[in-house]
Amino acid sequence: MHYEHRDQPLLPRHRFIHRLMQHGLIGLLVIGISIGIGMAGYHWIAGFSWVDSLLNSAMLLGGMGPVGNLPNDAAKIFASVFALYAGIVFLVLAGLVLAPVFHRALHRFHWEADQSARRK
Questions:
Q1: 107 part of a folded domain
Q2: Residue 109: domain span
Q3: Taking residues 78-96, what's their average pLDDT?
Q4: Could you tell me which of 22, 19, 3 has the C-alpha nearest to residue 110?
Q5: pLDDT at site 103
Q6: Under a CB-based contact definition with an 8 Å cutoff, are residues 95 and 73 in contact?
């Protein structure tokens, strides 16, 4: 993603909204891939049905924790690794979605400060 330099003017609102939508779509793609990885692991390693695999993957990615008992050690190891992965994905997605908002706020403050300094 390319952001404007502090010497450049603030993006117009419609381009900023477009940037937010791009970040949101990337976030949805990461969530979809993560759900797929979780579903595959729960289905093939733990032996869960596809619906139960979806439930467990979504619950872990949503920060709620797994549902049901894990039948073997391999499933428990997978669930542990996937839970750590889900926590990292949550942090990365929060940064991805909030980055344009923070950049716009900081850019506005710097741009206004630079403009007032140039007037003096």
A1: yes
A2: 13-119
A3: 92
A4: 3
A5: 79
A6: no
Would 110 be classed as within a structural domain?
yes
19 contacts 100 by C-beta, under 8 angstroms: yes
Domain count, the chain: 1
Res. 99 pLDDT band, cuts 50 70 90: confident
Output the pTM of the full model. 0.77
Q: What is the CATH number of the domain that holds 87?
A: 1.10.287
* Angle separating helix axes 73-119 and 50-61, nearest 10 degrees: 40
Assess if residue 40 is contained within a domain: yes
- Among the residue ranges 8-17, 24-33, 48-57, 62-71, the one predicted with the least confidence is 8-17
Q: Looking at the domain assignment, is residue 1 inside a domain?
A: no
- Pick from 63, 104, 54, 102: nearest CA to 84: 63
Question: In this structure, how many other beta carbons lie within 10 angstroms of the beta carbon of residue 93?
Answer: 19
